[in-house]
Design goal:
Blueprint: H1 4-28, H2 32-37, H3 43-63
Helix pairs in contact: 1-3
Amino acid sequence: MVTMHTWYRIALVLVIIGALNWGLIGFFGFDLVSYIFGGQNAMASRIIYAVVGIAGLLSLGLLFQTEERV
């Protein structure tokens, strides 16, 4: 059984991946996700972007948790 703590960890990993991708775009103009999956409009890229976005929304909940619950 997957606990909520596990979902938050998975979301955090995805948010880190998204942040690294944005860092590559900002510093070098290189979008790694679109490079790997065939362009920004490719279905696989859009799915990755959507999953990372959902992970970001899930991670918002971490901002409002107390230290005991994290």
